[in-house]
Inverse folding.
């Protein structure tokens, strides 16, 4: 039976490969950023409706499409993010022209959410086709605003009401070869610490800095002192990255401004070290500001924003076993962690979680640029495997399957 269902899933994934590629190119071409995924959401709902799945509208652009087998059993949520990044896209990848480019200025799927949606739709079609062999329910949860972390509260509230037994998600990765997967237990993606520091000084004429208090000087020193503190006050074996990405101050060359703003983030895997890092940021900012006769104001996103994405051990084992059964030998890789962050981490406090990495790098095709880069592109040959692995996990989970992957 297990071998038969595996073969059926693979046949269906192959059957829908061109459909999935077509969907990915559609979403990529018509990319929409956080809170503006109106056409994306509408299109996804239409595809789900074609399969007869009822739609639960949520506040904003997120929604849930439910596959109910009509038989009692577990309830699994398969989550996909739907938003693009607010950036322009390069028409070429690392080798040449891309197969598709966003036509919407300032909106670009440079993180792979187009692939996530396409894989979810492909898995939806496969699972609908074999629904007579399943029990329980599958909720396809399309979450808005992943890039800004705005969609998960509404989605989690809805999933709690559905009393789901677990939640599954995918993320394509540009640093893993196409055809490979990673489903390790424990921490997968980093937690995030926000940096939002406004340094308050006293404005004045640029010709008389002695009569003003220049916040730019203090803000500059905060940046350098933070980097010094990072190497001397944090455990070097428990990496916490530091990136000050925004420095905003002034608008004319002869006016000393009232304030300067610093924005950025840190990423971590160790919880204890994250609290130390968050405290250091505030200590350095306040101390340096005081020495320069300035004050600081911290923004709403100052401090720990998210915890690391975690995989529940039992679900990781189930996913690994499924990958080994479905994919060629060597497809399952281990010990891959990603210092990016994801609000999928929020679900870990609520449900058993499984977050799978899908490799999409292919240097020969020019696919391998970093996420959030204008040249980011994926090897579409990886999508079929993503569909098969997702459907396989759903089938095994609903069947109550357990098992250990081979070493």
């Amino acid at each position: 039976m297990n071998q038969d269902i595996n073969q059926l899933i693979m046949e269906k994934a192959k059957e829908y490969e061109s459909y999935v590629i077509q969907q990915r190119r559609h979403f990529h071409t018509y990319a929409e950023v956080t809170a503006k995924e109106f056409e994306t959401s509408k299109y996804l709902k239409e595809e789900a409706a074609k399969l007869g799945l009822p739609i639960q509208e949520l506040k904003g652009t997120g929604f849930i499409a439910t596959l109910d087998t009509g038989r009692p059993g577990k309830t699994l949520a398969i989550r996909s993010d739907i938003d693009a990044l607010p950036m322009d896209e390069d028409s070429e990848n690392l080798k040449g022209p891309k197969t598709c480019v966003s036509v919407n200025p300032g909106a670009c799927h440079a993180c792979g959410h187009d692939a996530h949606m396409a894989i979810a739709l492909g898995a939806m079609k496969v699972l609908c086709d074999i629904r007579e062999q399943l029990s329980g329910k599958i909720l396809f949860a399309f979450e808005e605003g992943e890039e800004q972390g705005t969609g998960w509260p509404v989605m989690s509230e809805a999933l709690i009401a559905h009393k789901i037994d677990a939640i599954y998600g995918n993320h394509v990765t540009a640093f893993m070869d196409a055809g490979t997967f990673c489903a390790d237990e424990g921490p997968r993606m980093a937690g995030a610490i926000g940096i939002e520091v406004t340094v308050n000084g006293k404005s004045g004429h640029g010709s008389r800095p002695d009569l003003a208090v220049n916040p730019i000087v203090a803000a500059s020193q905060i940046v350098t002192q933070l980097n010094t503190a990072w190497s001397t006050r944090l455990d070097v074996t428990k990496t916490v990255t530091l990136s000050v990405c925004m420095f905003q101050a002034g608008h004319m060359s002869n006016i000393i401004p009232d304030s300067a703003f610093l924005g950025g983030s840190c990423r971590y895997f160790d919880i204890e070290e994250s609290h130390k890092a968050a405290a250091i940021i505030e200590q350095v900012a306040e101390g340096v500001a005081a020495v320069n006769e300035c004050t600081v104001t911290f923004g709403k996103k100052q401090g720990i924003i998210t915890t690391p994405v975690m995989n529940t051990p039992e679900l990781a084992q189930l996913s690994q076993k499924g990958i080994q059964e479905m994919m060629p030998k060597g497809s399952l890789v281990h010990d891959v962690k990603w210092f990016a962050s994801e609000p999928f981490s929020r679900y870990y406090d609520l449900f058993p979680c499984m977050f799978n990495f899908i490799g999409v790098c292919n240097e020969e095709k020019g696919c391998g640029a970093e996420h959030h880069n204008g040249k980011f592109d994926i090897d579409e040959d990886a999508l079929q495997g993503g569909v098969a692995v997702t459907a396989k996990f759903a089938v095994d989970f609903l069947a109550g399957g357990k098992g250990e992957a081979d070493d």
